[in-house]
Amino acid sequence: MKNIILIGMPGTGKSVVGRALAERLRYKFVDIDDLIVEAAREETLADVLRKRGVDGFLSLESTVAEELDAENTVIATGGSMVLSDKAMTHLKENGVAVWLETPFSQISARMPDDLSDRAIAAPADMTLRDIYEEREGLYAKYADLIVTSREGEHATAQQVEEVMRTVGVNL
């Protein structure tokens, strides 16, 4: 069985949808953000970003993903994972990438005014709109499937499962 790799902007619900989807499918669940915090021996993702800077954070995120060996697992990636071609290539070797596409207006409504509170790996002068525009094409590039986020993680998880079954992905 292949892994299911959830990609998308911060605030799309990759972690909560991932947990719900893993429960539905009886898969394991891994949140890359948790692995980053563990690898860095820090308390929070914001601590990792603050201490290592954007480049150091992105390097660690890529390394963690490249070293991940999983089967029958729903993997919630960080929003910046698509910035690493090596990491995405490795994850997709045994997985199907699903972009949880969410309109910018919804993402913006979910995010705090101060993006550093969300530990978003981007230069300080980038706005949320800049980040969205930079990454949108990369999400499309790596996505095997695109699922528009719905209201509530269980509804989105159900939609991901239905789309995957419809296109013939073995679950």
The largest sheet is: 5 strands, parallel
Trace the largest sheet across and list its strands.
2-3-1-4-5
Total helix count? 7
Give Rg in angstroms: 15 Å
Mean pLDDT: 89
Please, how many domains? 1
Strand portion, in percent? Answer: 5-15%
For the secondary structure, the number of strands is 5
What is the CATH superfamily?
P-loop containing nucleotide triphosphate hydrolases
What can you tell me about this protein's structure?
There is one protein chain. With 171 residues, the chain is an alpha/beta fold. It has a single domain (3-166), classed as P-loop containing nucleotide triphosphate hydrolases (Rossmann fold), CATH 3.40.50. The chain contains seven helices and five strands. It has a five-stranded parallel β-sheet with strand order 2-3-1-4-5, with helices on both faces. It is globular, with a radius of gyration of 15 Å.
Which helices and strands appear, and what pairs or packs with what?
Blueprint: E1 3-7, H1 14-25, E2 28-31, H2 32-40, H3 45-67, E3 73-76, H4 85-93, E4 95-101, H5 104-110, H6 128-142, E5 145-148, H7 153-166
Parallel strand pairs: 1-3, 1-4, 2-3, 4-5
Helix pairs in contact: 1-7, 2-3, 3-4
